[in-house]
Amino acid sequence: MRSDTLLERHAEALALFTDRVHAVDPGQWGDPTPCTEWTVRELVNHLTAEQLWVPPLLDGASLADLGDSLDGDVLGDDPAATWDAAATAAREAFGAPGALERTVQLSYGPTAADAYASQMISDAVVHAWDLSRAIGADERLPAALVEFTRREVEPYAGTLSGTGLFADPVETSAGADAQTRLLAQLGRKA
Questions:
Q1: Phi and psi for 39 in degrees, rounded to 5?
Q2: What confidence tens digit (pLDDT) does each residue in 32-77 have?
Q3: pTM of whole model > 0.85?
Q4: Is 136 helix (H, G, I), strand (E, B) or coil?
């Protein structure tokens, strides 16, 4: 995929999640999400911490260099503002000249930065749906992001439930739409 298209999808995924974060009512931060282990706050914290990893990893830092600096609650007293700052920093880091041509050191080894960006896009898209479901927001995902995420996860979707991070795939009807099929592949009932 061309760099400008990848960056466009990344910006769209971040904007989608940002919209959902700003739709969280103050009383919803402790509510459950489709990610059975996470509340709304924990889900937003997960995505925020992921964005905070992007700039140092693209600058050549290793996981060992960062240690546990991004463990725990990174949201502070203003989760939406913290998310906004982290998302902006991640978008700028991926958009820096040559950033998508670099290699980053992830937990499973060296990874091309463009592949890392693709994973981050997919994670933001799926978790935008999770957050939407949790807070009662519009659950429809943009078609371009659904298609991008489907292409990203399809090669390894069958192994995801074995990681313990995803539920088993859910059965869908033969006529299910693309979003429903994607979510079912990732263990979510639309």
A1: -85, 175
A2: 999 888 999 999 999 999 999 999 999 999 888 888 888 899 999 9
A3: yes
A4: coil
Give the position of tokens 């995420």.
149
Taking a C-beta distance cutoff of 8 angstroms, is the pair 76, 66 a contact?
no
Q: CA-to-CA distance for 41 and 28, rounded, in angstroms?
A: 8
User: CATH topology for 3-185?
Assistant: Four Helix Bundle (Hemerythrin (Met), subunit A) (1.20.120)
What does the block give as tokens for 44?
């937003």
166 with 160: CB under 8 angstroms? yes
Helix (H, G, I), strand (E, B) or coil at 175: coil
Contacts of 56 (CB under 8 A, 6+ apart): 65, 66
Question: Where residue 114 falls among pLDDT bands split at 50, 70, 90?
Answer: very high
Q: What residue ranges do the domains of the chain occupy?
A: 3-185
Closest residue by Cα to residue 66 from 80, 83, 49, 79? 49
Q: How far apart are CA 135 and CA 57, in angstroms?
A: 32
Long-range contacts of 95-101 (CB under 8 A, 24+ apart): 95/7, 96/58, 99/58, 100/3, 100/6, 100/7
